[in-house]
Amino acid sequence: MVNPERSEGSTEGQRDRGIFAQPVCRRLGRFESDLGHQSGGKPPHSILLMIPLILFLAATTLRAEHFILRPDHVLRQEEIAELAARGVEVQRVLPDHRYVIRATDAHIPGNAEAFTIAKKISRAAYREAARAHAFATVRLLFHDDVAFEDAQRAVAVVGGTTARPLATDFELPHGLVARVPSTAIEQLAADDRVFAIYGPPLRPKNDNAVAAQLSHVTPLFSAPYNLSGNGVVLSLFELAPVDTRHPEFGGRVTSHLTGSVTSSSGHPTHVSGTMAASGVDARAKGMAPQATVHEFSALDDYAVMLNNKQTTLASLSVVADNNSWGYSLGWQGNQSGSGPSEVWNGGEDLFGGYESIDSSPYDAMTRKTSVIFVHSAGNDGSEGMNPVSPPWFQHAHVDNNGDVIKNETFCYSQNGSGTDCPTPTCTVGASHCETVRHPTYGPFGTMGLLSSVKNVIAVGAVDSFLQIASFSSRGPALDGRVKPEIVAKGVSQYSTVPDAGYARMQGTSMSSPVITGMMALFVEQWRMTFNGQSPDPETLKVLLIAGADDLGNPGPDYTFGFGLANAQASVDLIRADNNTGARIRSGDLAQGQQFETTMALPASQNVRVVLGWLDPEIFPAGDETAGKTLVNDLDVKLIDPSGNAVFPYVLDPTNPNANATRGVNSVDNLEEIEIANAVPGTYRVVVTGKTIAAGPTQHYVLVANAPLGSTAVVCTDPNEPNDTPETATQLASGIPLMGRFCSQSDVDDFKFTATGPGTVSVTATDTPIKITVIATGAQSTIAAGTTGTLQVPSGVDVIKLEPAGTIGANASYTITATYPFSTPPRKRPSRH
Fold first, then answer.
1. Span 158-183, mean pLDDT?
2. Which of 22, 231, 321, 431 is the most buried (most CB within 10 A)?
3. Over the stretch 382-393, which tens digit does the pLDDT of each residue have?
4. Are 372 and 319 in contact (CB under 8 A)?
5. Helix-strand-coil percent breakdown of the chain, rounded to 5?
6. How do 112-114 and 457-462 pair as beta strands?
7. Which CATH number covers residue 676?
């Protein structure tokens, strides 16, 4: 019988439906038409012969909990909350602003339709069932609230089996493949747990295989590359032991964690497979299918973990280390198994931050090893956007150990008194009725703490269509740095799970091992090209960025970083260099020192130059997480054949969606210059040690996608870069400043602000110099070994110096500006 409260004529039922009051469809009244929706309304012959099945279907329909809601407008958040308060959960959005709902009490909205068999079975599934075979292979989707074990039971009830009996999780989001008796397709569809039934799987072209294809790893497995990661050692830090017995690993994966394989082992086993599965199932083939992998615990004391990273990995010859884990900050889903769905963890100020307890020692460790550390960006891109449901917003808190406090529910006070929260909805006690709401945030500014460390590679997640995953954490870091640096596929990633199984998972945990596995291929190619040597970590990082395919806004951005990893393009840079310096240069620069080389373009092409270095750690005060973290500041620029300077990309952290502009980058330890359709000719590439605060020198790596010259010069000019009025060096009145020309086409600019007319004098050594006062156009040429003086007007003055003849071996000069200026009045600061 239908509950009277759900019937169309019930006054009480009409009151309950509120804004959703429309005629309701009677479940039994539609049953017969559901069965006969094909072939002109005639039910399939198999159904007519199965009276017991019809009784089963009727009983199942009466027990239905999932329905389709068809409101006349897109539901607002307050309307969804109103439904939730009445026990109606909105689970999925369907086309035409329809919704899949789960009703947990008798108050089903009047415009809710039965989730009928006709709505569940696809044409492909009917075709598969009609093929005159005893069993049909179909793909099943289950409702979001259905556990994997319940899905297996639903298949077993109708006499079917799952295609992968050892699987421990859904293959798609709440989906699996099953072999079902052909006559039982509609019986299975009548099960309320089933969301939809589709035809058999299409030809495999997805999951790790798709990740490899999207990032151009697959071509590296065959000629002329023939790369596999053979002889290369990788590592990962995880929270549970890997199932090392999986057939995909072939004894190449070793876990140094104690304890047996548990349900928590699914994550590390999946990550390990993405890195190094051999391809027994071709869809699960890892990025480096012959690499060796060692697993360590991320739950160890922090100092122990850092020691393992710094010393133990070196003893095992590890070259790249994966970290698909992070810290719980801000809002997180409740994984404790009971209580409210949202948990407030605090520490939201650490998103994208840099602090002395975790960040500084981690940065220090990265510079003391020969390992590149790869971190998942985090899955907080959408976590902080939703927890605002009125009226009370029940949520949980964590204790000092980070564990969810059980049997306690916190609510938001509505009148600000802290005493109006209802019981038992909210736990008794004023401390559980909060007068201040926790912040909401996202998607930008949600990077994990360790993934925001300067010297690691942080990896975001995209899907097969190269769209950013909604959960993928985004930058900027709090000091404006580009984070994440790179993206890879991390949605519906097919890989290994315990007990010889396979499953799809998603998260930046799934995208970071794509990059870690790539590193093994880079190292393998490097060893072949560079006579058995291994590349240093900064070289691996710069090669990754130099080969990336741009996504999102032109140039880097805070969503995709520098783009989608392209392993083939990066490996091609190694091969094109061929151990000659034709694409890759490295060196060490002191304060003010300059390195210069040429780049010759025989024809027009898109040019990319990337500079990178491992920056020293900095130890901020306890309340400082957003200050500038760059210690040693290097700069790169290109001088085109016409003498124009081209600067790297810079981003505006206050406008994270904005396109990158060009300028002097004083924030990042990765700098990228691009020129689309660069004209043929000879370009100059200039790298300057602008600020070397921790020294005496800073090692750097420079990678270009066009031929670099065979010779280079080193020049020291402490004022560089000062090639434009925008980057001019500031002059103080009466204080001499020494500079130097580093090439025949070098131009140096200086500026100051005068309250009255003044003078500028320049003394040349072995190179004649032309002086230009930009404001007035006045010029003077100074012979080598002499001094020249020009008058300057009041206001902002920019002085341009350039060689007036062939530069000498010294090419230095001294410039002095003398001008009147005013000192701002002193006053007591507002803070004492």
1. 78
2. 321
3. 988 876 667 889
4. yes
5. 20, 30, 50
6. unpaired
7. 2.60.120.380
Which residues make beta-bridge pairs with 457?
374
526 and 586 assigned to the same domain: no
Are residues 249 and 288 part of one domain?
yes
CA distance 739 to 720: 9
Confidence at residue 237, expressed as pLDDT on a 0 to 100 scale: 95
Domain finish residue from 684, 716, 748 = 716
Residues 704 and 734 in one domain: no
497 and 624 in a single domain? The answer is no
Return d(Cα 23, Cα 70) in angstroms, integer: 11
Residue 625 lies in a domain: yes
Residue 246 lies in a domain: yes
Nearest to 584 by CA among 532, 536, 647, 638: 536
What distances in angstroms separate CA 163 from CA 147, 166, 170, 445, one per listed residue?
A: 17, 9, 12, 42
In the sheet where 769-773 sits, what is the strand order?
Answer: 729-730, 748-754, 795-803, 769-773, 779-782
Amino acid identity at 362: Y
Strand partners, 585: 702
Comparison of pLDDT for 204 and 398, the residue scoring more: 398
Which of 563, 726, 582, 84 lies closest to 342 in space, CA to CA? 84
Inter-CA distances, 753 with 721, 757, 796, 822, Å: 20, 10, 4, 10
Are 704 and 595 part of one and the same domain? yes
More confident residue, 203 or 539: 539
Residues 6+ apart with CB under 8 A from 336: 343, 396, 403, 404, 406
The enclosing H or E element of 713 equals strand 708-716
In whole angstroms, what is the distance from residue 75 CA to residue 82 CA? 10
Query: With 0-12 CB in 10 A as exposed, 13-18 as middle and 19+ as buried, what is 222?
Result: exposed
Q: State the average pLDDT over residues 149-161.
A: 90
- The per-residue pLDDT for 242 is 97
Q: What is the mean pLDDT of residues 752-774?
A: 92
Q: Which token pair is 385?
A: 């956007």
Q: What is the mean pLDDT of residues 311-331?
A: 93
Closest CA to 687 of 659, 715, 662: 715
Whose structure tokens read 């009370």?
Answer: 392
Cα dihedral 812, 818, 821, 825 sign: positive
Contact 519, 320 (CB under 8 A): yes
Summarised one tens digit per residue, pLDDT across range 538-589 is 999 999 999 999 999 999 999 999 999 999 999 999 999 999 999 999 999 9
Mean pLDDT along residues 671-683:
95
| Same domain (yes/no): 456, 518 | yes
Residue 238: predicted pLDDT? 93
Flag whether 120 is in a domain. Answer: no
- Report how many domains make up the chain: 3
Q: Select from 122, 100, 116 the least CA-distant residue to 35.
A: 116
Residue that terminates a domain, selected from 681, 698, 716: 716
Domain membership of residue 216 (yes or no) is yes
Q: How far apart are CA 464 and CA 450, in angstroms?
A: 27
Phi and psi (nearest 5°) for 137? -95, 120
For 275, counting Cβ atoms within 10 Å of its Cβ (0-12 exposed, 13-18 middle, 19+ buried), the class is buried
Q: What is the mean pLDDT of residues 765-770?
A: 93
* Res 53: pLDDT: 43
- What is the C-alpha separation between 535 and 530, in angstroms, rounded? 9
Residue 285 scores a pLDDT above 80: yes
Domain of 533, in residue numbers:
208-327+448-546
Both 535 and 621 in one domain: the answer is: no
